[in-house]
Amino acid sequence: MDIKTYKKNFDYSYTFGMFPTVELIQSMPDRVIKVLVSSHYKSESSADIFELCERFNIRTEINDKAIKRISDKDNNYVIGVFDKYECVLNPDNSHIVLVNPGNMGNAGTIIRTLTGFGLNDLAIISPGVDVFDPKVLRASMGSLFKINFEYFDNFDMYKKKFNNRRIYTFMLDGAKSLKDIKHDNNELFSLVFGNEATGLDSSFSFAGTSVFIKHTDRIDSLNLPIAAGIAMYHFCS
Amino acid sequence: MDIKTYKKNFDYSYTFGMFPTVELIQSMPDRVIKVLVSSHYKSESSADIFELCERFNIRTEINDKAIKRISDKDNNYVIGVFDKYECVLNPDNSHIVLVNPGNMGNAGTIIRTLTGFGLNDLAIISPGVDVFDPKVLRASMGSLFKINFEYFDNFDMYKKKFNNRRIYTFMLDGAKSLKDIKHDNNELFSLVFGNEATGLDSSFSFAGTSVFIKHTDRIDSLNLPIAAGIAMYHFCS
Q: N or C: which end of chain A has fewer CB within 10 A?
């Protein structure tokens, strides 16, 4: 196999750095093709990559040239190479839905946060970021490997497939303040967030309960992962 | 003056992009030295940079070479050049305190969020990011120009100066869950957050009330701006 700069159409991808690579190995060892290690790698007290790979029967390869070629930063000493995969969402779980997410760091941060709040399922309405991009994986700190995700061509397709839940759409001109939403813990929910620049269009006002997070008029909007984090905190804790 | 890549020791800095530059001009027109405009700049329906600068009597300069030299991205059509300044915190306000913040995007996001939740004062315990770095300014969406900020050599100096408030330190092993904190709105508070990688050390357990935001053990910690955003939402809304 060629080790080239990641592109969306590849059927494999990379984890950059120790932390996401360890998560990859522990979550789905069978999908790991190999682990590239820099000759400058120094074992950390908490985890040795060679030991870990040996335990899971994963091939390691010292290969500074390949690491340099595919890294976007200079400080990657460990890179996991793995087969991409597909999942489907669990209909018995609550979901996070991102409509056309555009920023990879934001998507990764949201994946990390939803994992932290005990959620397990992420729907992405296309077009949207490629969750297998190493930049998303890094921002997620490898949390992607612990969740289900699924892409949908449009929101209606998502909604038709999962019609057993309450839908909350987060919009600057939402009808209800998040503070006033009392959620029944026995009921499934989907929290829906729009694109960073454009938010959700007005059709989402009627897709469920539209919600705003109150903020001053000194800013245009909260940043997307912050809004999503606050919403998850409200619903999940 | 020389237009060079920004360095911390400069007594001026830059706003990259239309949005932060407009915030700069509207918040503190007297500090603007000039505005660099790309020959590729196209007026937006919402704001024309030449019109705005004329209204505030600010010099504009078409200078693609300077923009290319100092930009970190290719899509900056407008750059504000301004004199840096100092502020002091308002003792009659509640504060956000960042201890040794290391990531510029995170610091900017936190500044944007605190502005959105009606806070106005940010303390930074050194060493920490330079809030005038164009990367912080961009992530803050220009919100920095609307708040007071002040650097302190250590937390004790901050605490001595502002002893009229309740202090909440956010730590993974905090004593109280955020959910259980009932804050009296008449009382000033300071919310204290540690560095991205190391958090707050154990001395902060006794600096006030130590607080944790409950999350699953499937992640090591919430990302710093997410934790800060959730805390501000809890205290300010």
A: N
Q: Please name which of A209, A199, A189, A187 lies closest in space to residue A123, comparing C-alpha atoms.
A: A189
Residues of B in contact with A220 (CB under 8 A): 141
Chain centroid, CA B192 distance in Å: 14
Chain A residue with Cα closest to B219: A116
Q: Which domain CATH number covers A184? A: 3.40.1280.10
Residue at which a domain ends, from B55, B83, B111: B83
Upstream peptide bond of A134 is cis (omega within 30 degrees of 0): no
**pTM beyond 0.90:** yes
Output DSSP code: residue A180: G
Residues of B in contact with A214 (CB under 8 A): 237
pLDDT in tens, A99-128: 999 999 999 999 999 999 999 999 999 999
| ipTM value | 0.95
Which token pair is B157?
């100096």
Residues B58 and B158 grouped into a single domain: no
Same domain? A203 vs A228? yes
Subunit contact A223:B112, Cβ cutoff 8 A: yes
Domain, as residue range, for A62: 12-83
Does B39 map to a domain? Answer: yes
